[in-house]
Known about the structure:
Layout: H1 2-20, H2 28-53, H3 57-79, H4 95-118, H5 124-137, H6 147-150, H7 160-172, H8 178-201, H9 205-215, H10 218-225, H11 230-245, H12 250-266, H13 270-289, H14 291-318, H15 324-330, H16 341-357, H17 366-373, H18 386-407, H19 413-439
Helix pairs in contact: 1-2, 1-3, 1-7, 1-8, 2-7, 2-8, 2-12, 4-9, 4-10, 5-7, 8-9, 8-10, 8-11, 8-19, 9-19, 11-12, 11-13, 11-18, 11-19, 12-13, 12-14, 13-14, 13-18, 16-19, 18-19
Amino acid sequence: xxxxxxxxxxxxxxxxxxxxxxxxxxxxxxxxxxxxxxxxxxxxxxxxxxxxxxxxxxxxxxxxxxxxxxxxxxxxxxxxxxxxxxxxxxxxxxxxxxxxxxxxxxxxxxxxxxxxxxxxxxxxxxxxxxxxxxxxxxxxxxxxxxxxxxxxxxxxxxxxxxxxxxxxxxxxxxxxxxxxxxxxxxxxxxxxxxxxxxxxxxxxxxxxxxxxxxxxxxxxxxxxxxxxxxxxxxxxxxxxxxxxxxxxxxxxxxxxxxxxxxxxxxxxxxxxxxxxxxxxxxxxxxxxxxxxxxxxxxxxxxxxxxxxxxxxxxxxxxxxxxxxxxxxxxxxxxxxxxxxxxxxxxxxxxxxxxxxxxxxxxxxxxxxxxxxxxxxxxxxxxxxxxxxxxxxxxxxxxxxxxxxxxxxxxxxxxxxxxxxxxxxxxxxxxxxxxxxxxxxxxxxxxxxxx
Length: 450
């Protein structure tokens, strides 16, 4: 069943892969991960639109394979005459570093297997939110609209995960528990590999292994096993950021915009990514390269972002009820909470405590390893890379958004932080690891694009 589930998930990935063969600014591993992210996002949107139109679910079993086979065949036909050039090169790694990576992978797999054996259905959010919504989406009639009235938790959240799961269930002909488990685990692995592959492309093996070790901390791995949507959100975020760090082309910018939009289609927190990352990148390009360069970058980013954004906005306006955070912000006394200094101090203190101990290491926390990396020696650099600066601005924006959500929450503050803080950190963790490592990643005066 696991193999069949994986096959249903990766069919769009194989369809999108030929379209990415011409994106030679990326390594082969990076293209595989991008194809996976785009495949999951695109197939979930297609399935959701099919349900919105109201066409029969049974017919989708024929439509979906035909669609992706056509997409793949078109991409292969389009690439048939393309010149065969060498992929972007990665840095060679020493045997010692390979051994470290192997140990990390083995420990992570063992941790995953042990946890899944004890919790095959994941944690609360998995079976009470995402998988429950997916069960509504496979309903053979318009009954799927009940998901917004019946599901008690987060009814306004976007439907990337439920749609992707429901699509695979329909293709399989049954609601197999293996589907959400496999999808979540692959997303966690893809996020770890995204950080490692991008840092390896900088040709700094030590930093690539540091990124692997830090991203694959037990807390992040276990959230993947728990089938939490925070892990796919983290994947789409770090994928968009690392695409901006690749040698620039229209393709990489369009893909970055599309994946940033996919973050918004995953969870409400992803709206911050979709809004802040393109703006940050364009502003950095404006300051560094001038208006014409910034406008070209903005054009390409929003070509990728807008189609997904239209789906998200349409979902919010047509189907989703008002969410807790938006409802809290729209109340007349929402901003009075900012006058409560004690509330602000409590939020700051709890988040700092959670961040320092986050990760699941037996001694200390990975945040200290990130701090040590900040003093890692760096070669001479004449100018900072726009992607690194944009990622830093995005991280700041995400932290501010978290603080705003906590300060204005209608729920008991301590309960809200205790049940969500560790997951919110996971959303930004791969990007934070990549950013810290990438700031040290300019060797011998080389930049990403050199």
